[in-house]
TrEMBL record:
Gene3D superfamilies: Dipeptide-binding Protein, Domain 3, Periplasmic binding protein-like II. The keyword NADP does not apply. This is Peptide ABC transporter substrate-binding protein. Its main location: other. Signal peptide: none annotated. The lineage of its organism: Bacteria, Bacillati, Actinomycetota, Actinomycetes, Kitasatosporales. InterPro entries: Peptide/Ni-bd, SBP_5, SBP_5_dom. The keyword Signal applies. Belongs to the bacterial solute-binding protein 5 family. It is found in: Cell envelope. It comes from the Bacteria.
Length: 597
């Protein structure tokens, strides 16, 4: 793409988006936003309702705190964490992330025996909403469920949790000890293994002491009954600060305080509403009219942010600890042989002008992804935008233009051939399934289609809602019917993958990893990942980042801010966590003068 030429095809698409967005901006403040208050000051008050906009075409659809494939959207886990407390929660601390959050259910873990054991003590005083105490047996209930049903848990990676725990020993009601199968890097184990631990109400969810497989199957049946999340008694026993008041099949979720919550951060608001929107433009219209208290500006209207400040909002980009990419299905019956060719992936990456897309389409609210870790941890781009290099790679491996589309003219496995599994005359055509609802994502896909096309690569793009894309782009084995459903997939309008504090890749790029959607399998990648797990040397993570960036398990694309938030000036206490967790229990309203809380 190079520079986006304003008279070129991509430029016209972008200009149309800008004109459309500008037309949406009206005059005057929305009716219920307090304009006389600035971003600071005011007297805190108790109560009230805050309505937060969900991302475009996003519908919360999973409440069970054990994730299932196809249900891994960040808003699902953010809601779960408000109902069922994890032992450790990530929190921003300066420029870094920490798991020392006071909101977690446990004290700091204590490692022993050369990092082969870890002892964990639960904080005292926590109770379930029915009055029963939260104990270590509730944590063990979770562990037993994932151990007995690990193949059905979306968080499972072979040889990791729960395989890496040889023994879970309950010492008393508040303390348990894990005996590990080897010594691990404590930073990695806490950030990427212990962060999954959650207490589940064993007394309410398994009153008849069923074995873990039967109990899990029963709980999963309830978890798939989307329409009953608000009424099913099962989900009413919580230990978090909130409970469900409403959960519609259209995706609107309403939370009210758990009056039995015993943690330090009790809610100030009476209700929090998480409101779905089909597109960013529809959200923008409602935000402009004052229909949401915590919304977002589409990147195309960033130039209008000053108007929103005048209307009584503060603008705050929500940066994520994340990377963004197009996932590749290596097991697709026809596209798989193409995508397994390293030279082809390199050529496609050279056709993605991340800098220009970030600047022009995302209006500076995105930045290039350089590899498998957040960009700030890498120092070079191994595949900068270079269409000439892309064309040379393809020509050098036996592809020639026929009717505007490249075809294989030198089939075979040797040097200078198209590669194994690619037959003579094969057309270089790929299909990309992308999430809908975002003008920026739609424009990005059209630019990629255009740039690929100029090099002779035909790219067919179709768009579906995010949940559909997530439910389709799942790991599969060669021959599985689901493997034929997609070739390339994109679910990164708000970023594709959000890391725990330690951004290693065992969940996304290790062989058979749960979120390795395209089934990338590479011994060198696996070895680099293992090094980050076992060694506390920071060089291990750097080596992993540099090498996997070059190996290209996916196509790197611009990483957008999760959103550019627009918040009412009188709504305070909002902290935008880089891992996308929510803490509405800390939110509160202020008023000008008078008595407060």
């Amino acid at each position: 793409m190079g520079r986006v030429d304003p008279v070129g095809r991509g430029g016209r698409v972008i200009a149309a988006a800008l004109i459309g967005a500008a037309a949406l901006v009206g005059c005057g403040p929305p009716g219920n936003v307090v304009t006389e208050l600035g971003a600071t000051g005011g007297v805190p008050v108790e109560g009230g309702t805050a309505t937060m906009a969900l991302p475009p075409a996003s519908t919360p659809n999973w409440i069970f705190p054990i994730g299932a494939p196809g249900y891994l959207a960040s808003y699902n886990s953010a809601i779960q964490d408000l109902l069922f407390l994890r032992l450790y929660l990530p929190e921003k601390k300066g420029a870094a992330l920490t798991l020392d959050s006071p909101r977690g259910l446990a004290e700091k873990p204590r490692y022993g025996e050369g990092n082969r054991t870890v002892t964990i003590t639960l904080k005292k005083g926590y109770r379930w909403s029915d009055g029963r105490p939260v104990t270590t047996r509730d944590v063990k209930f979770w562990f037993d469920l994932i151990k007995a049903n690990k193949q059905e848990w979306a968080g499972y990676s072979p040889k990791l949790m729960p395989d890496d725990v040889k023994e879970f020993k309950v010492l008393d009601d508040h303390t348990f000890r894990l005996r590990l199968d080897r010594a691990y890097n404590p930073v990695w184990f806490t950030a990427n293994e212990l962060q999954d631990f959650v207490a589940l109400p064993a007394h309410a969810w398994n009153p008849h002491h069923e074995d873990p497989r039967r109990a899990f199957a029963r709980l999963m049946r309830h978890a798939r009954q989307f329409s009953t999340f608000a009424t099913d008694p099962l989900w009413k026993t919580v230990d978090g600060p909130w409970r469900i008041a409403k959960w519609t099949t259209s995706g609107q979720v309403e939370l009210i305080p758990n009056t039995h919550y015993s943690g330090p951060d009790k809610p100030h608001l009476d209700r929090v509403v998480l409101k779905p929107f089909t597109t960013a433009d529809s959200e923008f219209n409602v935000l402009r009219a004052g229909g949401v208290d915590y919304g977002y500006l589409p990147p195309s209207v960033m130039a209008q942010s000053a108007k929103f400040r005048e209307m009584g909002y503060r603008i705050d980009p929500w940066e994520g600890w994340a990377i963004t990419y197009i996932v590749l299905n290596y097991h697709h019956p026809t596209a798989g042989p193409l995508l397994r060719q390293t030279y082809l992936r390199q050529a496609l990456q050279h056709l993605i002008d991340q800098k220009a897309i970030s600047r022009v389409i995302w209006h500076g609210s995105a930045a290039p992804t350089l590899g498998p870790v957040p960009a700030g941890l890498l120092d070079t781009d191994p595949y900068p935008y270079d269409p000439k290099r892309a064309k040379a790679l393809l020509a050098g491996h036996g592809w020639a233009a026929r009717g505007g589309v490249l075809r294989c003219v030198r089939p075979g496995r040797g040097a200078g051939t198209c590669g194994a599994g690619i037959e003579d005359g094969r057309e270089l055509r790929l299909s990309l399934l992308s999430q809908s609802g975002s003008t920026e994502t739609s424009n990005t896909m059209q630019v990629l289609k255009s740039e690929f096309g100029k090099a002779g690569v035909a790219l067919d793009v179709r768009q579906q809602p995010l949940n559909t894309v997530l439910g389709t782009t799942v790991p599969c084995k060669t021959g599985d019917p689901v493997c034929s459903a997609w070739q390339l997939g994109f679910f990164g309008t708000q970023g594709s993958w959000y890391f725990p504090p330690d951004p290693s890749g065992e969940k996304i790029f290790a062989s058979n990893a749960p979120s390795n959607m395209g089934s990338w399998a590479d011994p060198r990648t696996d070895a680099l990942i293992r090094a980050t797990e076992y060694s506390d040397d920071p060089a291990a993570l750097r080596a992993y980042g540099r090498e996997v960036a070059r190996r290209l398990p996916v196509l790197w694309t611009p990483n957008p801010a999760y959103q550019v938030s627009a918040l009412r000036n009188d709504l305070r206490g909002v902290e935008q966590n880089p891992t996308l967790s929510l803490t509405p229990q800390d939110w509160y309203y202020v008023k000008k003068g008078g008595a407060g809380r």
